[in-house]
Amino acid sequence: MNRTARRLPASQFPQMLGDWRAGDGSLARRLADAVEKAVRDGRLPLGAQVPAERLLAGELGLARGTVAASYQILRAEQLIVTRTGSGSTVALPPRLNDRLSPWASDRGEAGKNGAPLDLTVAEPAAPFDELLQSVREATDTLPAALLHDPAEGDSPSALHTAIADAYGVQGLPTDGGHLLLTSGADAALSLLSAAYLRPSSRVVLDSPTYPGALALFRGAGARLVAQPLTPTGWDVPALDRTLRAARPSLTYLVADFHNPTGLLMGEEEHAELRRRLRHHDTLVVFDETLRDLDLREGAAPPPRVAGRAGDRHIVYVGSLSKSLWPGLRVGWIRAHPDIVRRLAALPLGAALTPSLFDRLVAARLLERRGAVLDRRRAQLRSQRDHLAARLSTLPWCRFQVPQGGLSLWLELLDADSRRLTDLAATRNLALTPGFHFSPDGALDGYLRLPFTLPPEALDTAVDRLTEAHAALEGAH
Question: For site-directed labelling of 6, which of 65, 279, 283, 389 has its Cα 20 to 30 A away?
Fold first, then answer.
């Protein structure tokens, strides 16, 4: 495929940049800022060749030295790359394409100058370079994929094979018959709800737990039964008693770097849970969306509650949304083939399948998964420790450092998270109060704090949270 740079005529620049002369700073600085904004907005495509200094100066009515100074700023900030004899092309600087959190979380300002900070969503930004390369490769293979005979749809795809191999490496033999691809983890839970829940069916879940699951199960008309987590994890005997009393149709657990607490179910808990589940007639769904975000140094992959041969009551739900990118709508269900066939036969099954192009991109991106995850785990570990160090100095809250995942679960010792969240919002800090993670509307004394933002943004978030807490104290 031809990857040559697209040349942008100087005559197109005034329209692309808009009213760039307004604002503060020198003309060179304002022009550079306008170019950066055009790159972020997609008006100025990456890889495009910018006009020569003389041509752009004439088009904008500037001295050539002003354009040269602006280009020098852009080179220093790595927004353009200049090669001798080839001109300058538009690029995305590392501070944007190496981000762990989406630019929209802090408008790319990392909390500076009063910019809004959004800590309501814990999700990663795209791994820019790897994703772009995967999209290009997927585009190259798209023609052949479009010629594929739909009657051959039962044959395993490259994506099926990659996911199945990952399970096999971790001790859970899997083939195409065990897998159903979905357009994300929520789509997987929607299918399971449609197949196994009826109005007033009971669902047992951790408390706290993933809010998206709460919304889906409530939408299905289920009755939610909360099983509280302890500060250190799961009370398996208590869960056993809850299952005996509630006799749920479905049990939903997040055993790997739990959302929102970051807790990890240990070997002994897994072994005991495996033994006790054999006595219950409930579909047990393990959400493994955060499984790859293991922030322990040099640890082996977390254990699984592996069922017996032929077991039909354990289901695993996975997704690329938290480990790689939520914009790639690819998830899956790993279950007994009978369950997979039942789910695939539902009318919703086809609607909740990822698109062909998403599947092609995902298969390519999974080939680069190791490098992406290594980099992201290191970033997350550093940012988690940074946030924990800042919070450890505050006398009005406490927490445990999570072993993995994307967020920290903060217990407030003297405050209501609803009121504190409202006060934080007046300081341009958006937070999610604890009751959003509760099956029964409790947990008002908790906040979830993602550590996906850069350290400087986390500092600003803690400063604003501290100010909100001081205002709460002053209101008493």
Answer: 65
